[in-house]
Amino acid sequence: MVDLDNALCSYDRKFMVVIDATDECDRAVTFAAHRVKRTGGTVVLLAIIEPDEFQHWIGVGDVMRAEALAEAKTLLEKRKARIKTIGDIKVETLVREGRKAEEVEKLISEDKNIAILVLASSTSSEGPGPLVSAFATRGANALPVPVTIIPGGLSDEQIAALC
């Protein structure tokens, strides 16, 4: 017989946000932080360094990788600081290297506590953004977790009211 009380207590529901330098990323982070503040859990901030396909010189590639890692860590710290202004919220940070959609899928399959992927749509006229497009075109069964897409133009107050 399964002890549901203990099973539920050991589960740490995680809201995952893919981090980049866009304004809409801040909207996704804000939403995830407010939801975790209200309902509990952890915000997972995932920075993904995409591989450079034109690495002709190993030394140059190493320098570019180091610069990308430093930039990813800076973005993670900026987003953690943003979350701290919202409240005392548990945060995990990760940096991975690879294609964004593939790394998101891998992490969700590895960490069974990830319950929701939070993305924000771009306010640009060029479309909703690459990750939103990537998962939307795959259909409803693309991921084993729900995907919450936050409109990129929402204010902090509007996001707080949704949570």
**Count of DSSP helices?**
6
Instruction: Give the CATH class.
Output: Alpha Beta
- In total, how many domains does the architecture comprise? 1
Class derived from helix and strand content: alpha/beta
Kindly report the name of the CATH homologous superfamily: HUPs
From the alpha carbons, calculate the radius of gyration and give it in angstroms.
Answer: 17 Å
Give the spatial strand order of the biggest sheet: 3-2-1-4-5
So what's the overall shape? Answer: globular
Instruction: Let me know the largest β-sheet.
Output: 5 strands, parallel
Cα distance, first to last residue? 35 Å
Strand content: 15-25%
Description of the molecule:
Helices cover 48% and strands 20% of the residues. The protein contains six helices and five strands, in the order αβαβαβαβαβα. The protein has helices at residues 4-9, 23-39, 58-86, 100-110, 130-138, 156-162, and strands at 14-19, 42-49, 90-97, 114-120, 147-150. It is globular, with a radius of gyration of 17 Å. 26% of the residues are buried. The model is unreliable at 1-7 (pLDDT under 50).
In short:
It contains six helices and five strands. It has 163 residues and is an alpha/beta fold. It has one domain: HUPs (Rossmann fold, 3-Layer(aba) Sandwich).
Question: SSE layout and pairings?
Answer:
Blueprint: H1 4-9, E1 14-19, H2 23-39, E2 42-49, H3 58-86, E3 90-97, H4 100-110, E4 114-120, H5 130-138, E5 147-150, H6 156-162
Parallel strand pairs: 1-2, 1-4, 2-3, 4-5
List keywords for this structure.
163 residues, alpha/beta, Rossmann fold, 48% helix, 20% strand, globular, disordered N terminus
